[in-house]
Amino acid sequence: MIELAVLSREGKKVETLTVDESVLGGRVRFPLLKQAIVMYNANRRVGTAATKNKSLVEGSTRKLYRQKGTGNARAGQVRTHKRVGGGVAFAKVARDFGKEMPKKQRRLARDSAVLAKLLDQKVVVISELVFDRPKTKDFVEILGNLGITRSCLVAIRALDPNVYRSARNIPKVVVSPVADLNAGQICGHERMLFTKEALVSFLERTSTEN
User: Fold this and answer.
1) In a shared domain, residues 85 and 149
2) The pTM of the whole model exceeds 0.90
3) Residues 155, 198: one domain?
4) Does residue 189 contact residue 151 with C-beta atoms inside 8 Å?
5) Average pLDDT of the chain to the nearest whole number
6) Number of domains the chain is built from
7) Measured distance between the N- and C-terminal CA atoms of the chain, rounded to whole angstroms
């Protein structure tokens, strides 16, 4: 069992939560976790880089001059990559770098990522995170009270526009509903901040999925 302190917005302990490791798979599956991180980073790549090969460059395909008798070196068409303005040899083409994993493996990797953060004491739980209106200054103050000074993934139960807008201008801080959590996103941040409601919801969802 892992015991987590639930903190107030001021950083004071108000209660304790207990997390059963078995709900998160009981152990960290590092090979699966690596596979999920590779997939996450690959799917973020934009494979739109492309250059023109000789078939895409404007110009005639006619041989520039006859093969023999001119005293010049042999020459083919003007589009060749050996001439200025010609196409690119081995030109880049648009491609899809995307990878896939079965749904069950993605869930196990996500649970392993959360468990790894818990075991490394990189998870902070706050009693609530509610804003009447977007206020970045208040969000920064809360993070300071909780001792979060580096990159952080903030997990909330459902998308809250005020929370999202309060955090969007803070460098290396990302807000995500628990339903959208994934292993790559979790491992890409130093700390995790759960609201109490979000953590309970996440553990309940995980137990039913397994």
Assistant:
1) no
2) no
3) yes
4) yes
5) 90
6) 2
7) 18
